[in-house]
Amino acid sequence: MENPNKRKNKDGGFEANVMAILDSTGVREDRDLHDDRLSFLEAVRAGAFLSGTPSPPSWKMFDAIFQILRESNSLELTMASYQLLIDLDKHYPRVYLKSLDRSNSSSIGVDELVVVKEAWSPFILDSDSIHFEGGGTCKNSFHVDSLPIENLLLFQYLVSILEADFLPRHALYKESLDWALFRESLLNMLLGSRRLSFKTLVKECITIISKRCHQHTGISFRELKDATNLTGSAKMAHDCDVALSFSATQIERETCSSMQSFMSLIMELDMIRKEADLHGLTSRADGLRIPLLEIILDELTYNTDYISPFLEVFSEPRWKLEIVLQYFSKYSLKNSIRTRRAKESPDDATFAGILSYFSAAVSIKNIAKKTSLEVAQLLLAHAFQASLSLQHDQKHNASFAEKIGSTSQYEICNALISAFQNIRKIDEDSDITPFQKEALFTAASIVSQKS
């Protein structure tokens, strides 16, 4: 990727001409400022993608686009600046894998990680702080529990930057097992910053996922039917309200998806960090941080009302299953005495092992003392859903074998049905939600097909 700082020398006065569009001297009307910014975004897009010799924008131009995204009160400008930044990142990546020349017999066959250090980035990281181009701290820019659409899109964009930096490193790590790849990642440096309240951010994400992500307000059929009776300006205003409602709902859905991606990236980083610790590859300079999974478990334990909506929205099967298994292992099935050196570890829990605890009345009663049986049934249903997803996804074959246990799908389904029946014997008044009924119906169908 070409150094954006060389753009000015290469294209002469292009940067000056484009930046001049934003000059607000003598401009009094808000509409004129809006049109100027829109023209600026269009000019940048043309220069980056449509010109005879396209090249990335300069740092000043990137800063201006990012500032429009952060500060604009116009939905049109917010969407346009956000989409332009996303398109630029795809076309001019900051981090990517470069295939080595395999014609040389001495080549090992491992790709090379290319990090374009001169490329513009919204993050400016140093040893003890983090801030963004144009000012501001990560504390404010990662605040997502607010309604303005620009905040939601800003969060989505920042997560996309972290993901684009993380995934090439992860792909190379599978071949090299080099912890240094992640030590230098944006995500690792961000989470290690003193300016970021990591635990607060995670709690905020959990709250939003649990309270807002599963309840998107929409337009009812009756409202759409009533709209046919409107005419003139009233109809135009109503159509605008409907469009904005659908746009806001879609943006909220995509923000929730970004939150899942953000949390999944952190849990993946935590797992790699733990693996590096076991091999003695980390040092004191890497710092200490509470693993994300522990924070999630604590929040779901102290706010059990969050369990159902959170797991309903959090759809990544590998981590959903891990959350359920560790919840059972750490809070429902743990021994009364456990030392740090105990051989049993929550990480070693399997779905088959968890189901085995529901085969006897004594163990079910012990579970009921630590968590409600309603919660237990809910967790079992979500774990079963995640296990089915893992089994049918080839990229998760290793996770499936490791976390399900050496048990066939037929045996898992039988064990699930048996678990619910045994719970029912202990508590005849326990309710079964539609989701749990669906899980039982699916399990019964699989058993009948293989009988």
Automatic annotation (TrEMBL):
<dbReference type="InterPro" id="IPR034561">
    <property type="entry name" value="SNI1"/>
</dbReference>
<dbReference type="GO" id="GO:0030915">
    <property type="term" value="C:Smc5-Smc6 complex"/>
</dbReference>
<dbReference type="GO" id="GO:0010113">
    <property type="term" value="P:negative regulation of systemic acquired resistance"/>
</dbReference>
<dbReference type="GO" id="GO:0005634">
    <property type="term" value="C:nucleus"/>
</dbReference>
<dbReference type="GO" id="GO:0006974">
    <property type="term" value="P:DNA damage response"/>
</dbReference>
<dbReference type="GO" id="GO:0045892">
    <property type="term" value="P:negative regulation of DNA-templated transcription"/>
</dbReference>
<dbReference type="GO" id="GO:0000976">
    <property type="term" value="F:transcription cis-regulatory region binding"/>
</dbReference>
<protein>
    <submittedName>
        <fullName>Negative regulator of systemic acquired resistance SNI1 isoform X2</fullName>
    </submittedName>
</protein>
